[in-house]
Amino acid sequence: MIQKLLKTIEQYDNIIITGHDYPDPDALASCHTLTNIAKQHYPDKNITHTYNGYISRAENLNMMGECNIHPVDINTIDVDKYQYLIMIDTQPTSGNIYIPTNMEVIGIIDHHSLRNESFAVPFCDIRNSGSASSIIASYCQELRFPLNEATGTALFYGVKTDTMGTARKIRKFDEMQLKYLAQYTSFEKLSHIESVNRTPLYYETVCNAYINSELVHETKFLMSNLGSIESLDITGETSDFLISNRALDGVIAVGSLDEFTYFSLRYKPEWAHASEIAGFLALGNGTGGGYKKTAGGRIGHTETLDNVAVYELLKRRLVEFFQTHRPPSSSSHT
């Protein structure tokens, strides 16, 4: 696939490589590495790694420092000087990426469910893997691209954060890439990335997760409104922690950032996918999707929809989902 991607890049100049808004380690590592690959093959092309939103989570900032990752805020550059865009860890209609109106999407690399609109893009590599970093790592293997310690560590951390210690299932493909990346990984750097000093707002948010939680749908689904959040990652971290309660079937953590309310969802039973529930919750008001066990989404604020109103909307929609969707009689509720 990487040879096809390089041939695609060869046809265009002035390219931005970017991930979803408020990028996580998987998006940051993937975009950084592909930018390096593209620049090595086409040093005369104008190729820039950008991001939109904030990068505020302590681990993410540590990773950028330890691994020499320096994306450019897309709002600080003259986007008219770029005509083409390659997106990683997201797709055009996912609702979580800023695409300037003058730009044409020429490439998609993603590990989420395929969206029909993505077929129209010249290059499209969407796989059933646990992370985008795994896909990029496979490109490096195929090219025998000279990974250094910084980039290898970034990709390793990108795979790890998206597949290990969460409700997502790590796949054989991801395990293979972790084994490959381990030889280029500095575990000292990795330790520095994961050793963080939390901000007061982080602990305030964690406290809010408990204080503002309630059981809905036959007491097996917990919802928690975190209020204002400093980073999107906290909703996922909170839902991952809360779903560890064996008495729960599902969890939704909700938080407000800028003019949106974001939600992170986890669901254990096999009969319904978390992505299906997330899509139902956001239908008509925002976007939602994800995986079998994990999902998320966002809903924009309006004059009548602030964070509190969105939370109540999600709660009503959740109850409605389980009223209209029933598990097969043979399914287990545990």
Description:
Strand 9 and strand 10 form a beta hairpin. This protein has 11 helices and 12 strands. The strands form 2 sheets. A 6-stranded parallel sheet has the order 3-2-1-4-5-6, covered by helices on one side. It has a 6-stranded mixed sheet with strand order 7-8-9-10-12-11, with helices on both faces. With 334 residues, it is of the alpha/beta class. 39% of the residues lie in helices and 20% in strands. The longest helix is centred in the last third of the chain and has 18 residues. It starts with a helix and ends in a 10-residue tail after the last helix. The mean pLDDT is 90.
Q: What are its keywords?
A:
334 residues; alpha/beta; 6-stranded parallel beta sheet; 6-stranded mixed beta sheet; 11 helices; 39% helix; 20% strand; globular
Distance between the termini: 41 Å
Oligomer: single chain
Radius of gyration: 20 Å
Overall average pLDDT: 90
Walk across the major sheet and give the strand order: 3-2-1-4-5-6
Task: Tell me the number of helical segments per DSSP (H or I, 4 or more residues long).
Answer: 11
The dominant shape is: globular
Structural class: alpha/beta
Low-confidence stretches: none
Order of helices and strands: HEHEHEEEEHHHHHEEHEEHEEH
Helical proportion, percent range:
25-40%
Please give the number of β-strands: 12
Q: Summarize the biggest pleated sheet.
A: 6 strands, parallel
Give the strand content: 15-25%
